Amino acid sequence: PLVSMKEMLEKGKDNGYAVGQFNLNNLEYAQAILQAAEEEQSPVILGVSEGAARYMGGFNVVVSMVKALMDSYGTTVPVAIHLDHGSSFAKCAEAIHAGFTSVMIDASHDPLEENIDITKKVVELAHLHGVSVEAELGTVGGQEDDVVADGVIYADPKECKVLVDETGIDCLAPALGSVHGPYKGEPNLGFKEMEEILATVKVPLVLHGGTGIPTKDIKRAISFGTSKINVNTENQVAQAKAVREVLQEKPDLYDPRKYLGPGTEAIKQTVIGKMREFGSSQQA
Ligand code: G3H
Ligand code: ZN
């Protein structure tokens, strides 16, 4: 069923596993991720950035596509459709009215007071509709769509408690060294800060920039209260590699199903691997 993230993340935190947010870029991602979730009997979060939504034709198109695929597949696992890095109250409201079951309001680049104000407004509207809300503190490095950061700023554990207590959000993304896109060298995640936050913040934590984080760090983040991990680049790289190989092998190929199909399978296998790594397989 289509559900908010609230229960699935709390269950993950209570039972020591994380639920993957896998970003949708087009139809093939929705197909691959939903197939992977059903085969793995794993809850799943379909992340949709504003840029990706624009590319696919808008929030309504995304919701209709996901609902139709879930119908056609007979999906039985819990699925959340989540606005990734929502840039304003209006965008979050638009996504909620289009049928998204979860939204992130990313006001992490604003001063704390402004972040609190806008997040409170989003929570008030979202919770009226049974929609979950994610917010962020600090700055995730790298670039993803229109989300560009100039460097990593670690979230302040004290500010994390204030934001959660003042707004009623369902989960928190404290930026602690993660980066959108490929890492340059080993990730250097702030586990000390994560442990401090776990002691005072009772909501599940979110790790952005999941691509390229070693399993040992994934497991450590889960042990410190992280139960949502976002992955996009790793799926994109796997798809592109598969499509490139097919087209290099058969340069005269022009039927999109013949070169996109292998890419979809590559995304699916990558997602299955992540669900097993995060421990969400068989947890639906
Ligand atoms: O919000 C999206 C995720 O943080 C994606 O990060 O592309 O580095 O896996 P990633
Ligand atoms: Zn992100």
UniProtKB/TrEMBL annotation:
InterPro entries: Aldolase_TIM (IPR013785), Class_II_FBP_aldolase (IPR050246), FBA_II (IPR000771), Fruc_bis_ald_class-2 (IPR011289). Gene3D superfamilies: Aldolase class I. Binds 2 Zn(2+) ions per subunit. One is catalytic and the other provides a structural contribution. The active site is at 84 (proton donor). GO terms for molecular function: fructose-bisphosphate aldolase activity; zinc ion binding. It comes from the Bacteria. Keywords: Lyase, Metal-binding, Zinc. Dihydroxyacetone phosphate binds at residues 181, 209-211, 230-233. SUPFAM superfamilies: Aldolase. Zn(2+) 1 binds at residues 85, 180, 208. Signal peptide: none annotated. Coiled coil: none annotated. The keyword Zinc-finger does not apply. Zn(2+) 2 binds at residues 106, 136. GO terms for biological process: fructose 1,6-bisphosphate metabolic process; glycolytic process. Its cofactor is Zn(2+). This is Putative fructose-bisphosphate aldolase. The gene is fbaA.
